[in-house]
Design brief:
Layout: E1 5-10, E2 14-20, H1 23-28, E3 36-38, H2 41-50, E4 55-59, H3 61-72, E5 76-79, H4 86-98, E6 101-102, E7 114-120, E8 126-131, H5 145-149, E9 151-157, H6 164-179, E10 183-187, H7 191-204, E11 210-214, H8 215-222, H9 227-235, E12 240-244, E13 250-254, E14 257-261, H10 275-288, H11 293-307, H12 319-325
Parallel strand pairs: 1-5, 1-9, 2-7, 3-8, 5-6, 9-10, 10-11, 11-12
Antiparallel strand pairs: 2-4, 7-8, 12-13, 13-14
Helix pairs in contact: 3-10, 3-12, 7-8, 8-9, 10-11
């Protein structure tokens, strides 16, 4: 690696509150199954009180990816905003303990640190109710051009597009990456997020080198119910499309090069929280460590397979060890 970081990730800095729930609970509390819904502070407090047996852990999509990269042995920096409160301190110390650099200044005032209440149903689906809190306060002033220039890849979480200041911060980071000939990776994050910003995401493709999307997000982006049509759209785009399809595995495409890869075998799906985040971690590790597209896709599948085998969105077993055992590193 010729630069200081393998990846700089920009995303919402969120503390996850995770608990098992059934479909009746979702209906009772008007929670949309399998997607992320934005909520206010009052609803966050209500849902936290209603969920039994909740576990608390640092989270946020891009931060989870950075944690996965660290588990693989990559060098990374995370950019995201928290408040100087208990949850904010917990978030920062948790990232640093994993080996991820985190230097974004904490907010002294304003809303508290963000949280995401995740109800996990027996089928492994996660239904997320997210209070964005302090994470909405990210601004261009939090972006260091020098940090972006020091990374091989800039990785951006699509959820951030909902906040004007954060959008401006992303545009500043992309400009710095392009000025220094660094790759830009972008994850669509959620079908509803794509629905809100489809035209802008399509326009953004000209600046993106690697696009991460699950099947539903990709269909929403290209306004089709046919995955083959999605694939054809991505193949005429010059970048790398890393498309995940749950138990069907993934498809990695760049022009005429297409790889259809099986999902990594998993004894039981416990919680799908973070599967896409960890797929991105494995894939980006491969890309920044000289692996081909197929090998990078297999690393992504391995990382996703580890995280869906337990509760929580971050690896519990060393991904580096698992990848070595599988002959992928």
């Amino acid at each position: 690696m010729s630069s200081g970081y393998d990846v700089v990730g920009i995303g919402n800095a969120i503390v996850d509150i995770i608990a098992p729930a059934d479909d009746e609970f979702l209906a009772q509390h008007d929670i949309s199954k399998g997607v992320m819904t934005l909520i206010d502070a009052e609803r966050a407090a209500h849902l936290c009180g209603a969920l039994p047996m909740a576990q608390e852990a640092a989270g946020g999509s891009a931060a989870n990816t950075m944690a996965g990269l660290a588990s693989l042995g990559a060098i990374g920096l995370f950019v995201g905003k928290v408040k100087a409160d208990r949850l904010g301190e917990s978030f920062a110390s948790g990232l640093r303990e994993l080996g991820v650099r985190y230097t974004t200044p904490m907010a002294d005032g304003g809303p508290p640190t963000a949280c995401c209440i995740i109800a996990v149903t027996p089928d492994g689906q996660r239904s997320m109710s997210t209070y964005l809190g302090a994470s909405r306060e990210l601004t261009p002033a939090d972006i260091s051009d020098a940090d972006i220039a020091a990374a091989e890849v800039l990785y951006i979480e699509g959820y951030l597009w909902d906040m004007p200041d954060a959008k401006a911060a992303i545009n500043k980071a992309i400009a710095a990456a392009k000025a220094n000939r660094r790759k830009v990776a972008f994850t669509l994050s959620d079908p509803f997020c794509v629905g809100r910003w489809r035209a802008e995401f399509l326009a953004l493709l000209k600046d993106i080198d690697i696009l991460f999307a699950n099947e539903e997000e990709a269909k929403a982006l290209f306004e089709t119910e046919d995955f083959d049509a999605v694939l054809q759209k991505t193949r005429i785009w010059p970048g790398i499309a890393a498309l995940t399809r749950s138990e069907k595995g993934c498809v990695i495409a760049q022009g005429v090069e297409v790889h259809v890869l099986d999902a990594a075998p998993v004894e039981r799906v416990v919680d799908s929280t973070g599967a896409g985040d960890q797929f991105a971690a494995g894939f980006l590790y491969g890309i920044t460590h000289g692996k081909g597209l197929a090998q990078a896709g297999r690393l992504g599948g391995l990382a996703a397979g580890e995280v869906i085998s337990h509760y929580g969105a971050r690896p519990e077993t060393s991904l580096r060890t698992l990848a070595a055992d599988a002959g992928l590193v």
